[in-house]
Amino acid sequence: MKSDKNVKNIELQENKSTSKETQSHVLTLQSMVDDISFAESRKKKIEEVNKKTDEVIQLQNYIDCIVKVQGEIIDNIYYRMCKNEEEADKAITELRTCLNRKKKRKKFYWYFIYFFIILAVFLIIKAIF
């Protein structure tokens, strides 16, 4: 009788130890799955930020092209309107100085936007690691 009880106690202890090991393995695996899902969500956010950054750079390039073409059109108009080239050159230089002031302001705004984009990317990377 005593040996039967001892055998049952040993079996219960073995079952308890294996269930504790199983629980610890399950918790470990669950934490790994959580870490992987967190990393995947961060990766998606970084990809979105990179995509937006590329779009901003592309828009800036379009704006630069438009400003360049606009300058060429204005040059042609002034050369046709003015009686001689000296008057046209003076008018064009005045106009260009005015446009350059506006262009510098626009560039400042873009640098400001670039700064915040870089800051956001840095904070996202810092949050991941």
Topology:
Layout: H1 2-81, H2 85-128
Question: What is this structure, in a nutshell?
Answer:
This protein is mainly alpha-helical and 129 residues long.
Structure description:
The chain is mainly alpha-helical. It has one domain. It has two helices and no strands. The protein is rod-shaped and about 105 Å long. The two termini are 60 Å apart.
Kindly list the characteristics that best describe this protein.
membrane, 96% helix, mainly alpha, transmembrane helix, single chain
Shape: rod-shaped
Q: Into how many domains do the coordinates divide?
A: 1
Mean pLDDT: 74
Kindly state the number of beta strands. Answer: 0
- What count of helical segments does DSSP give? 2
Over all CA atoms, what is the radius of gyration?
A: 35 Å
SSE string, helix = H, strand = E? HH
| Strand percentage | under 5%
SSE class:
mainly alpha
Main pleated sheet: none
Are there runs of 5+ residues with pLDDT below 50, and where? none
**Spatial gap, N to C terminus:** 60 Å
> How much helical structure, as a percent, in the residues?
over 70%
